[in-house]
Amino acid sequence: METRRKKRFIAGAVCPRCNAIDTMMLYMEHGVEKVECVGCGHTQSQTDDQVKQAGGGEVIGVFKPE
Question: How far is Cα 21 from Cα 19, in angstroms, rounded to an integer?
Fold first, then answer.
């Protein structure tokens, strides 16, 4: 049985594989932030430490789903 995950779409995000716009969704799985394209299935993941490091620079804020 798969646990339910809260999924949120990222407005304006472009998939690095298929270049589709507005198909990327963000969710947490076992404490790891994951991004997946619903169009082609491409996935990327970041641990909490990587997310915190990405929060510097020109980033306005880091979204932390509950």
Answer: 6
User: Which pLDDT tens digit goes with each residue over 14-61?
Assistant: 999 999 999 999 988 877 889 999 999 999 987 666 556 655 556 556
Cα–Cα distance list, 20 to 4, 28, 33, 39, 48 (Å): 25, 22, 21, 7, 26
- Provide CB contacts within 8 A for 66, sequence distance 6+: 6
Please say whether the beta carbons of 63 and 34 come within 8 A: no
Element (H, E) at 50: helix 48-54
Q: Model pTM?
A: 0.62
The sign of the torsion formed by the CA atoms of 22, 23, 24, 30 equals: positive
